[in-house]
């Protein structure tokens, strides 16, 4: 334990305190499992917030990285490289969109979508200059840049970071009528998550996505679907919006697109939206670099070739059914879709944080969100046997007096 504390104390001394990690120090990992600096083995039930859908160090993705590193990792966008076109083609053919625009992080993808929507509003919809408005949902999480926190409903995300960026309106999540009432002649886009991850795995009412798509189409408003956490098989479909068979105007992607090895993000849209960008409008030194492109192609291939979306659908149902069989007075609700699962405890029993730490001690890593919810998002490679093992450990923790 001394070794663990040494690493934690070092990070606390030299790093900004903008995170509150579970007190484990991970040194290595493979598949669904990680090992700490003391040699203890843990089942990773968070998967780097769904960035490791394919499992840690998947050999196909690692080999793609090594091969590309030994050629050329970075060229900048001042020049073409021989990997980016193939990567963008693969993304577009996978999703059915006409164009992809590569960036690095999820927040950058969201910023790119916001810029695309605003310029589309002025150029195509002919909104009066400086008046474009974008609607978002309460309890959203789209990133932490100044523009993005400007439409957060979390006080902590805005307090002492103002002035916030104007041009955003926030409505309740899951309320299609509220969207219809909020739209006006200056509305250029509605941005939403098909499932709210950071909010505690909040799933909207059945039919909500279809209704949202109808309302936005009727009003000539772009629908931006943030699939950064939910994309690439996590919910049992390649993209979560496919559960309701809709087609957004813009999709933001990230996390699992990098295969757990490298930050890669992108937006997808048709020419109608993408053609508003001209050289110099937007960009990134690293966006679309050959290393990212090689990794991204391998990451996509693993999701498709290994049927990980279908696997998440089957095993997610198995996992949720198993959790629902836990008889505990402390559990308020189990909710999820695919392998994106939340277990909410009753408010009177305090924070979910101590439960996550107890699970850590039993060899299972997860994290609380919104104080009361434990989020379970394991690698999509997880087996039924590993799920059974996780459920037994969760049962053990909830069989104890959690108020102690």
From TrEMBL:
Its EC number is 2.6.1.13. Its cofactor is pyridoxal 5'-phosphate. The keyword Transferase applies. Pathway: Amino-acid biosynthesis; L-proline biosynthesis; L-glutamate 5-semialdehyde from L-ornithine: step 1/1. It comes from the Bacteria. GO terms for molecular function: identical protein binding; ornithine aminotransferase activity; pyridoxal phosphate binding. One of its GO terms (biological process) is L-proline biosynthetic process. Pfam families: Aminotran_3. Keywords: Amino-acid biosynthesis, Aminotransferase, Proline biosynthesis, Pyridoxal phosphate, Transferase. InterPro entries: Aminotrans_3, Aminotrans_3_PPA_site, Class-III_PLP-dep_AT, Orn_aminotrans, PyrdxlP-dep_Trfase, PyrdxlP-dep_Trfase_major, PyrdxlP-dep_Trfase_small. Belongs to the class-III pyridoxal-phosphate-dependent aminotransferase family. NCBIfam families: Orn_aminotrans (TIGR01885). This is ornithine aminotransferase. The lineage of its organism: Bacteria, Bacillati, Bacillota, Clostridia, Peptostreptococcales.
